[in-house]
Fold this sequence. Notes:
Strand order of the largest sheet: 5-4-3-2-6-7-11-8
Largest sheet: 8 strands, mixed
Order of helices and strands: HEHEHHEEEHEHEHEEEEEEEHEEEEE
Oligomer: single chain
Shape: elongated
Helix content: 10-25%
Amino acid sequence: MAEKAKNKNLHKAKDSKKDEFYTQLSDIEKELRHYKEHFKDKVVFCNCDDPRVSNFFHYFSYNFENLGLKKLITTCYKNQERDLFSENKSEKAIYLEYNGDKNGNRVPDAEEIGIIHLKGDGDFRSKESIDLLTQADIVVTNPPFSLFREYVAQLVEFDKKFIIVGHQNAITYKEIFKLIKEDKLWLGYGFNGGAGHFINKHYEDYATATDRKEGMIRVSGVTWFTNLEIRKRHEDLELYKSYTPEEFPTYENFNAINIGKTKEIPVNYNGFMGVPITFLDKYNPEQFEIIGLGISSSGTEFGVEPYKAEHKKYRKEIQKRGAVDGDLYMMTNGIVDVPYARIIIKNKRL
């Protein structure tokens, strides 16, 4: 299936608000193993899940004692439409509360899980859900991509720690990028190959034949966002290339050089550099300073020209040249004319 068709499919999911992709248990286990020290004596809240099918609830309930949790709370959005993705068919939204094993078998038995009906629909923005949020220490879930800005804004407002799934394009949202620049949010360890398989009942699987999982949709560019300290964000990016003006051209209307691939950041350049948004997966705030979001089709903080309608004529040429580190661009006379999103950075070590 062509990339255009896959993107159309995701936009369709976003527009219809049916973008609730249930996360695989294996992906949750792979990411959360890096955060175990943060969970001891903490209340974990999963507020965008149907606990009867949620792998987040499964992970935390079965690892409750191992993680040393204090309490697990999971809310379920009420199914108000027949074709809504939620498995909840009851007339009322519910939340589940688990306080750990009581009979010694270290398994979350049904009689050990408290099921409580909510008065409202269980939306994370409802008063009941917010009241539960205030009890929580750490929020872990996969929120709807269409509501990502609003969801993160709520977590920040209530000063919560979190580990959540989102699309890397959210990096270019001004509200999200501001948090990244201010060192209040960063990327986690991520999904294998920068793509995740999610259970989704509305759309067929558009994965390639070599990367297909029955009954799932493959979404490229998904990642984990967090504000919990992890070892990864303090590891240096190893640099090996030397700067030359021929290989690293300067933007026409901003004094920064263009970097095609994160791994090609020159070791000896002291000025501003425009790097792909995928750089944030390797970002160490002790090694680099983020200056701002340089070039974007949705606007810019700088005097670098955003993508314009007249640039459409370059699209065929862009596609022929292919993707560079997840970012398409073309060059004319050695000058980068139509770059897409770039993060402007500076090496702190020089």
